Amino acid sequence: MFTSFYDICASTPAVTDVLGSPPRIFPFDEAMQNTASPYVVYHEIGGSPENFLAGRPDMDDYRLQIDVYAQDGLTANSVKRILFDAIELECHVVGFNGESRDKDTREYRSSFDVEWYVER
């Protein structure tokens, strides 16, 4: 099982208003060079099964890092807020990873982590 991050974002009008339809949201290494901004890249950075003393786990905890790229910092942070509103009822925002600027593309990046519990 995996998180429903993409599906929730793709079905949220505020997200598709800024990221297109289908939204420019890509797993960790699938964003193509010269992708139109803004866009989002996400990847699994950790997690664990919810283990019991007896029997199999009934859910898994996934930790995702979500990076928003845009041509300016204001847009990157605005898209980040839109993503929060879209997904926060399904997961927990657990970390803010700061902001930076890509040395090659010169695009601004705003990053955060979420924890997502997924039933098996």
Helix/strand layout:
Layout: H1 5-10, H2 13-19, E1 25-27, E2 39-49, E3 59-70, H3 73-87, E4 92-101, E5 108-119
Parallel strand pairs: 1-2
Antiparallel strand pairs: 2-3, 3-5, 4-5
Provide key terms for this protein.
elongated, STM4215-like, 5 strands, 120 residues, alpha+beta, 5-stranded mixed beta sheet, 40% strand
Could you give a short description of this structure?
The protein is α+β, with helices and mostly antiparallel strands and 120 residues long. The protein has helices spanning 5-10, 13-19, 73-87; strands at residues 25-27, 39-49, 59-70, 92-101, 108-119. The mean pLDDT is 94.
Notes on the protein architecture:
The protein is of the alpha+beta class. The protein has one domain (5-119): STM4215-like. Helices cover 23% and strands 40% of the residues. The chain is built from 3 helices and 5 strands; from the N terminus they run H-H-E-E-E-H-E-E. The protein has helices spanning 5-10, 13-19, 73-87, and strands at residues 25-27, 39-49, 59-70, 92-101, 108-119. The chain has a 5-stranded mixed sheet. The longest helix has 15 residues, at 73-87. It is elongated and about 50 Å long.
Q: What's the tally of helices? A: 3
Strand content: 35-45%
Briefly note the CATH topology name.
Answer: STM4215-like
Q: How many E strands? A: 5
Distance between the termini: 6 Å
Instruction: Give me the side-by-side strand order of the main sheet.
Output: 1-2-3-5-4
Tally the structural domains: 1
Summed over residues and divided by their number, the pLDDT gives a mean of 94
The structure class reads: alpha+beta
